[in-house]
Amino acid sequence: MSSTIESTEHKALRTAVAALGQRYGREYLARVAREGGHPDELWADAAKLGYLGVNLPEEYGGGGGGIAELSIVLEELGAAGCPLLMMVVSPAICGTVIARFGTDEQKRTWLPGLADGSRTMAFGITEPDAGSNSHRITTTARRDGDDWVLTGRKVFISGVDIADATLIVGRAEDARTGRLKPCLFIVPRDTPGFGRSVIDMELQAAEKQFELTLDDVRLPSSALVGDEDAGLLQLFAGLNPERIMTAAFAIGMGRYALARAVEYAKTRQVWKEPIGAHQAVAHPLAQAHIELELARLMTQKAAALYDAGDDMGAGEAANMAKYAAGEACVRAVDQSVHTLGGNGLTREYGLGSLITASRVARIAPVSREMILNFVSHQTLGLPKSY
Q1: How distant is the alpha carbon of residue 270 from its chain centre?
Q2: Three-state SS for 67?
Q3: What number of other Cβ atoms are within 10 A of residue 23's Cβ?
Q4: CA distance linking residue 142 with residue 194, whole number of Å
Q5: C-alpha closest to that of 132 among 102, 112, 166, 155
Q6: End-to-end alpha-carbon separation of the chain, Å?
Q7: CA atoms within 13 A on the CB side of 55
Q8: Using one digit for the tens of pLDDT, what is the confidence trace for 143-178?
């Protein structure tokens, strides 16, 4: 069956997750964020139903599916107004990397907990001075006997306060060439020298953002994930799911906002007819729906390629999906707020805060400009400017 037509299993998964999402909704998530808490009840229920680990291997308690299934879960929770951001980092990035490249011991230690939601893991790649240039990562990992010692800083790392460990991207010196190469390390939350401070964000979200300091953090050799000579390959095995999941996050948010606006436009009456009868209101909403559907198609393609083991094809499609979904989400939220007029900015309707939230998918985990760079160099073969 074509990957663009959803299977009955995928449709059933959507319906089931949507039902869970409706039980919680946007008001639940907004209240949790206001109170400085975490969506523990929703996380636990999603875990109990097997949704959090749907992409992880069955032998470790997962669902045996792939990113296609996990992205459906996140999109449908988002469409219900209660997306779980930690799904992007814990099962999608960290779970995938450990399942593909981890030692048997790492898999046994982490995957069952990531699958049943009892453990979470954060992901640390972004640095204050590197931005989108991962070649400028300055967090270094040096050998000291059998141990590794990590030194550096990370920024905009989600959920470190609730995560049992953080998968940190550092750079180790290649013994043959002397060059620095990326490596992945599991750093438990209470490791000496591993510090964190919360970043004050305009964004109202349950998941906080952190700056991390690694001050001579000593780790055993078992903390290294995978082969230290294949760090780049392993890194992208985690970054492609991150882009696909971010796309799903954005599509869900766009769908949520659009549904609120459509509901409003059907009932809000200023003249004779409801405002949704006017093309100046109806057409932009229809356009937003089309753009979200197109972004979902590319997200499905990216997930299908990734799950089929085509990392190169998935890289291109995942970047395109993230770009399309980010743009579609921002436009859908903007149009939805505009449709409600002044009501679009009230707390009662809960759309105004999405104006800030929708920008996230344009900026993270990679900016739209870097995606355009990727497509112009990798796909179109145009020369690099940097």
Answers
A1: 40
A2: helix
A3: 12
A4: 16
A5: 155
A6: 42
A7: 33
A8: 999 999 999 999 999 999 999 999 999 999 877 787
Contact 344, 338 (CB under 8 A): yes
Condensed to tens digits (0 to 9), the pLDDT of residues 270-328 reads: 989 999 999 999 999 999 999 999 999 999 999 999 999 999 999 999 999 999 999 99
- Supply 45's token pair: 């229920």
User: Taking a C-beta distance cutoff of 8 angstroms, is the pair 37, 28 a contact?
Assistant: no
Residue 191 and residue 213: Cα distance in Å, rounded? 12
Tokens representing 66 are 């792939």
Quote the pLDDT of residue 1.
Answer: 39
Query: Is 16 in a helix, a strand, or coil?
Result: helix
**In this structure, which amino acid lies at residue 156?**
F
Q: Provide the token pair at 75.
A: 């999109």
Angle, CA of 311, 158 and 362, to the nearest 5° = 60
**Largest Cα–Cα separation, the chain:** 80
Helix (H, G, I), strand (E, B) or coil at 55: coil
Q: Both tokens of residue 218?
A: 């000593």
What does each C-alpha distance from 239 to 137, 213, 314 come to in angstroms? 15, 22, 10
Q: Please check whether residue 250 is in contact with residue 134, taking contact to mean a CB–CB distance below 8 angstroms.
A: no
Return d(Cα 273, Cα 269) in angstroms, integer: 6
DSSP for 127-158, written as a single string: -TTTTT-GGG---EEEEETTEEEEEEEEEEEE
Cβ atoms 205, 357 nearer than 8 A: yes
DSSP structural state of residue 380: T
The answer to whether residues 267 and 274 touch, using CB atoms and an 8 Å cutoff, is yes
Please report which helix (H) or strand (E) contains residue 124, including its range.
Answer: strand 121-124
Residues 6+ apart with CB under 8 A from 218: 144, 147, 148, 149, 191, 192, 193
CB 227 within 8 A of CB 103: no
Query: Crossing angle for the helix pair 279-307 and 311-340, nearest 10 degrees?
Result: 160
Residues 6+ apart with CB under 8 A from 23: 45
Give the angle 345-250-365 at the CA atoms, nearest 5°.
115
